[in-house]
Design a protein that fits this description.
heterodimer, A: 499 residues, alpha/beta, Rossmann fold, 2 domains, 6-stranded mixed β-sheet, 22 strands, globular, B: 311 residues, mainly alpha, ABC transporter involved in vitamin B12 uptake, BtuC, two-stranded antiparallel sheet, 2 strands, 1% strand
Amino acid sequence: MLELAGITKRFGATDALEDVSLSLFGGEVLGLVGHNGAGKSTLIKIIAGAQAPDRGEIRIDGKAARFHSPHDAYAAGIRVIHQDAPLVPGFDAVDNCFLGRPYPKHFGRIDRKSMREAIAQVAEAIAPGLPLDVPVALLSPTQRQFVRLLRAVADKGRMLILDEPTAALPAEDAETFYDVLARTRDRGTSIMLVSHRLDEIASFCSRAVVLRDGRVVAEHKGAELTVGSLIRSMGGSNEVVPHRDTGAATAPVVLEIEGLRTSELRQPVSLQVRAGEVVALYGLAGSGRSHLLNAIWGAEPVRGGAMRLVGATYAPRNPRDAVRVGVSYVPADRHRSGLFANLDLVFNKTLPLLSSYRRVAALPLPDRRTERSAFLVAAERVSMAFRAPGQLARTLSGGNQQKLVFSRWANRHSKLMLLDEPTEGIDVMAKTTIKEIVRAIAADGNGVLVSTSDRDEALQLGDRIVVFRNGAIVRTFTRAEASPEALSAAAQAREPVPA
Amino acid sequence: MTTLTLNRFGTLVAFLLLCIGFSIAAPQAFASQANVFNLVQQMATLAIVATAATLVMTIGEFDLSVGFSASLAAVICFVLFGQGHEVWVAVPVALLAGLAAGAVNGVLVARFGIPSFVATLALGTILSGLAFGISGGQSLFRAIPDGFKSLGRGAVFGVPVLAFWIIGVLGVASFVLTQTEFGRHLRAIGGNAQAARLAGLPIVRDVIITFAVAGGLAALAGLLLAARLGSVQHTMGEPLLLPAYAAVFIGTTASPTGTPTVAGTLLGVAITGVLVNGMTIVGVEPFIQRILTGVIIIAAVLLRRIGRSAV
């Protein structure tokens, strides 16, 4: 249906894409994977008509097509669905689907009835049960993703390019999402799925193409399409993380939580973190573990219970209190909560502990040179790749942006480090580095709390793994007891598992 | 690199071209010492109000009450003069009134989460009512101490007094924004408020202080205007609002990331000031002056967009 032949694209001296050929057949789901910077984004832009290839040809149904603009690609039936493609929040699904399309008219008035019928017919086939008459602002993120799909398919989309479609969805909804995608495929629509979640690619795609350094390096299908084979082709290490024994079990307690209650937790939480210990909080998105971190960080109000930090009463009213007593925090969703995208790297690094970079201790005037050298040291420690300390944070790749957020705390000894989804949305290599950093932080004698929805990450990092479900702790595993199956069972269980 | 340089200095180049153009068109009138003196005096109040707007825009908010604060401060000061109070009583009281009004704005925005556009518009309306009531709707010009008038009139070493105010206020504001921890906080809040809060910045305090300082600066501008004119009407500050924001927006075109800076704002004030002054001298009719000023603001921002997409 869609064929790319010998697509080459250069930016300056670097090859973004080199002789990329691939085809997408009718009614199939093709996976496209690769590290950040492997060329996926450029390829998507070329297919979408947003960029022209330097060489090579795009063929649709066997005929050469030339896209001068995204409009041409759209007319050919190509629909690129980005992870947070905007919808009009106050419009319902029907109105959103008709955005930019001619409205059916009835005596000069917009014919809402036939609009709704047209959309309902498609919705029935791919996403039955999706509310069509409710403003999309009131729908769940998953339902909004269905609206985006619906909009693409309802307007004669024959080839869908989905860019990280499940990245923003709660893990428990991924299955529903893929059901909807399967029904879309079964109507004859071709789908190209671009994702970092290799398990989803492996289980849902019939074929997967791997990009590395701008080239197609492998195509996997059938039985050889597995997470392991994908990782090998991508050039990441298929790491089995050897877990060190820290002897943390006898170390002094850093954080002690007793009966902590917040409005978001269904049951009071009690928990201990020892020096040098990594405690992983594992659970699906929305299970309450992020709220617990926020409460410890002082960013969410505490309704009851008590916390002690190294023996002293700890009751932060805001993050500032937490910083002051030696707690550090790396938030989930770095774009919204962590980064200052339009400010430079040094600014991003030194902000939370700015007063430690004064030239004269009594004057609140940061010293640029001290800041710069602290940045360089910290960047080295988190192995961040960058061009210049003065470049804007938004120009870094996702993994390096995350390292930048980490680097804020790299020059001090934190008593307690709080990490929320530290490896979300970054490539496999960067993930490995970040995990090593987390372990190094603990090895320095800091207590670490990692909240994650990634089961393997919880297993690799946690000395102990605390499983959350539905706003409460359902079970705590020691390293020895933990297994992938046991964690999943606890996180998904209908009833609390007795500890 | 050349595009980038052109981008950054394009606004400055435009200003210089404007000056050269008017100097050629009206060499006697425009480039004369008297006219430059006059120009600086006209720009001073606007420059200070625009600086207040710059501070608030740095944290990503708007303050629509600046013009009203300026009026109220001037009215309070002159009413106190009328009651026989000294300069050292009347001026601090008037400045404090502006500071307090700004702090209320800050509390409404930071503590109660009211969008700044709405909060400052509402408070500004209240302030204009107060100024009206306190002045009785009358023009105030009696019993003005000469010491007060000298704050905004005359010259020292041949340089207009108001030029020193511009240098002092804008210099301090620029230093605070670029060199101090507080200034970093403001840029962080404007860059990403959520991230700033989660990084442990005291953003409620910072936002309240910013609005309070903006109110205080607006009050100062009102007093300087009153000192220069020697009389006060309760609506005299209102016409400052839109040109102040126009200046800030023109100024943002001189910064690589489109963020407001004090230097950029000064450039914006100078461009609008020279434009109006020059056109008046050349004999452009007032209605055409206004239309042209609007067109030039749009052109400046548009040119920057085109320049940026070319990079």
